[in-house]
Structure formats: structure tokens, C-alpha cells
């Protein structure tokens, strides 16, 4: 691998993933602000959350995680946990997509998804990303590859 990039570069892989994290956190916060009877608004926000998360998880699973597992010492465990956490989130997203915004468990499922994602983000940002930044991974090249895939999704 080539020399690592400066993690302040907005095009590097870690910066891109952290930006995605902030976007999803904002949409979850917007959901919390909606009135409970606004079923249409809730469904639109859940559709947005779902799209953002599915793209993000695809980038991590197909590009970021394999590179991290291969190149970053001590990261295989947290990568495996991330994959399992993604599976749980995908299951909830699938359930939510099949629901209407006014169904009885809709809000509860969004809350659980939000909590799962919050936990997942904390683990990545506190455990995985610091190891990645100290590694020899070329974060700029990885970010470019991820940006190309993201544009296609």
C-alpha cells in the first residue's frame, strides 16, 4: 500500500464515512421532531434513512471493511461485528420499508434502528477509525474508490 493520506482530507475514506454518519444522525433527529400523526412525513424520512444506510453499508462491506481487515492490525474483530450489525440494520430496514408510517410498531422500529446505528457509529469512530488512521492504508485511494461506487449507487 502507498503512504496514508491526511485524515483531514474530505475525500479520504474515513472522512467520507464520518460525513455519512452525521447525515444519518441528522435525519434520525428530524424524524424525532415530527408529530406522531405525520405518517407521510415519517415514511419519507425513513425512506431517506434507508437509502443512506444501504449505500453506506454497501461501501463499507464491499470496499472499506475488506481493506481494513487485510491491512489494519487488530481490526478483524470489529470488522466482523460491523458486518453483523449491518445485517441487523438491514433486517429492520426491510421491515420498515414494508410498513406504513402510521402502523403501531413503526416508530418503535425506527427508534431501535436509530439506537443500533448510534452504537455502530460509536464503535467505528472510537475503535476502528483510530486504528485505520494509524495504519498504512491509503485512505485517499480508498475514498476515491468508494466515491466512484457511491456515485453508481
Structure description:
This protein is an all-alpha fold and 153 residues long. It is 78% helix and 0% strand. It has five helices and no strands. The protein has helices at 13-33, 39-71, 76-97, 106-134, 139-152. Helix 1 (13-33) runs antiparallel to helix 4, helix 2 runs antiparallel to helix 3 (76-97) and helix 2 (39-71) packs antiparallel against helix 5. The longest helix is centred in the middle third of the chain and has 33 residues, at 39-71. It is elongated and about 50 Å long. 27% of the residues are buried. The model is unreliable at 1-8 (pLDDT under 50).
Major sheet: size, sense and barrel closure?
A: none
End-to-end C-alpha gap: 26 Å
Give helix and strand order, one letter per element, not per position: HHHHH
Question: What's the Cα radius of gyration?
Answer: 16 Å
Q: Percent of residues in beta strands?
A: under 5%
**Mean pLDDT level:** 92
pLDDT < 50 stretches:
1-8
What is the total tally of β strands? 0
Class by alpha and beta content? mainly alpha
Task: Give the number of helices.
Answer: 5
Shape: elongated
**Share of helical residues:** over 70%
Amino acid at each position: 500500500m502507498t503512504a496514508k493520506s491526511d485524515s483531514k482530507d474530505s475525500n479520504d475514506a474515513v472522512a467520507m464515512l464520518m460525513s455519512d454518519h452525521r447525515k444519518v444522525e441528522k435525519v434520525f433527529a428530524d424524524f424525532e421532531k415530527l408529530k406522531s400523526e405525520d405518517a407521510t412525513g415519517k415514511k419519507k424520512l425513513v425512506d431517506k434513512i434507508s437509502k443512506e444506510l444501504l449505500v453506506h453499508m454497501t461501501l463499507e462491506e464491499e470496499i472499506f471493511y475488506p481493506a481494513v481487515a487485510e491491512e489494519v492490525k487488530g481490526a478483524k474483530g470489529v470488522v466482523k461485528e460491523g458486518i453483523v450489525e449491518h445485517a441487523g440494520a438491514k433486517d429492520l430496514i426491510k421491515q420498515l420499508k414494508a410498513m406504513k408510517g402510521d402502523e403501531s410498531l413503526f416508530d418503535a422500529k425506527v427508534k431501535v434502528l436509530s439506537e443500533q446505528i448510534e452504537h455502530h457509529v460509536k464503535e467505528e469512530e472510537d475503535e476502528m477509525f483510530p486504528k485505520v488512521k494509524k495504519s498504512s492504508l491509503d485512505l485517499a485511494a480508498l475514498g476515491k474508490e468508494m466515491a466512484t461506487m457511491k456515485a453508481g449507487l
